[in-house]
Design a protein that fits this description.
The chain has 127 residues and is mostly helical. The protein has one domain. It contains five helices and no strands. Helix 1 runs antiparallel to helix 5 and helix 3 runs antiparallel to helix 5. The longest helix has 28 residues. It is elongated and about 50 Å long. It starts with 18 loop residues before the first helix and ends with a helix.
Amino acid sequence: MSITFTPKSGIPTNLQDDGGIRDFLANHGAGVFDVLDAVRDDYALEALTCLTNGAFERTTAYDWAENLIAELLETFESMSCATIFIRSANFRGDDLLSAWNYYGARIADLASEHRQAMLAMQMSPDD
C-alpha cells in the first residue's frame, strides 16, 4: 500500500472520506469476517462490524478507527496456531492458517498506513 498526499492539506488522499478503510473493507472485509467467524472470535467480529459501520457513517478515518484496527491486529497477532488448527473445520475455505496469515498481514498494512496518515494529519498546517 502506498500513500498519496493531497498537496494543499497534506492529508492522504486514500484516507480522505474513509477511502483507505473502505477500500480495505471492499477488498478484504469478507475474508477477514470468514476467518474470524471460523475461529469464533466474537470480540474481533464486533470490532470489524464497528469498523465497517463507522467507515460508511463518518467523513474522516482518523481517531475513531485507530482502536478498532488495533483490536483486530491484536487478535491476528495473538491467536495460537493450535487454536487456528482446531477450529479449521469451521472454515469454508481450504486452509485457515494461510488465510489467517494473509488477512493478518493485510490488517498490519492497514494499521501502518493508518498510523502514517494520523501523523501526516497532525503535522499538516491548518488551511
